[in-house]
Amino acid sequence: MEDGSPSRGMAAKPAACTTEAATVEKFAARVAHDFNNLLTGVLGHLELVELRAAQNPQDGVDSLIAGARQASGRAAELARRLVLFSGHTLHEREPIPLAPLLQELAIRPDCKGLDLKLPDETLCVAADTCGLRQAVLELLANAFETGTTVHLTAGVESGRVVVTVRDEGAGMTPEILARAGEPLFTTRSNGAGRGLGLAIARRVAEHAGGTLDLASDPQKGCTARLIFPIM
Fold first, then answer.
1. Which of 224, 214, 135, 221 has its CA nearest to residue 177?
2. Quick one: 98 exposed, middle or buried, by C-beta within 10 A (0-12, 13-18, 19+)?
3. Please, is 19 exposed, middle or buried when counting C-beta atoms within 10 Å of its C-beta (0-12, 13-18, 19+)?
4. Per the database record, which ranges form the Histidine kinase domain (predicted)?
5. pLDDT value of residue 55
6. Which residues of 186-217 are buried (b: 16+ CB within 10 A; e: fewer)?
7. Which residues neighbour 213 within 8 Å (Cβ) at sequence distance 6 or greater?
8. How many CB atoms lie within 10 A of CB 149?
9. Is 156 helix (H, G, I), strand (E, B) or coil?
10. I need a surface site. Which of 57, 80, 164, 204 has the fewest CB within 10 A?
């Protein structure tokens, strides 16, 4: 933006885009289901290998098994995120006190150094608990990728409950910001990104009757806001 003002993303999508997104979500759910079935077979055979290895110890086998377990764990996590993105595991909305949930996230090892400002203890949103936790985690993971200080706050703005995650990185170009949140869109070239994080956060927010708003301030970082109806 030439005037240095923040640019925004996640605008309302045309009907064609909405239909396409629904198709992608259904496809993700089917892939995750089939993938989980295959993974169950892999883990079952891995258990048999562990039993055989315990009966006939061989040098190096334990480390190979541990590596296979670790890879299987990552695969299971990817399948879980795909299912969440599809919305098939989002349940009935229930009142969730935000302060305890945000405190729980702040003490995670992968959130070390988080600048947390807790909301009033009575502030709640009506959402799926597991979904909301994962949505905030996805936003935090993206923010921590910048290697800068990450800020997490929650409060009431204009009659809505807003959970805000802000980093101090380089921000996104208007072109990237316009596509941020598209399923499977990622700017990471090392294969680490899956293009699911923002899409999951948006899916969870919409399930709760809210939305995800993104803003990028040139050279000052990105701000992601989960916006929910006030209870």
1. 214
2. buried
3. exposed
4. 30-231
5. 83
6. beeeeeeebbbbbbbbbbbbebbebebbbbbb
7. 8, 9, 10, 224, 225, 227
8. 15
9. strand
10. 57
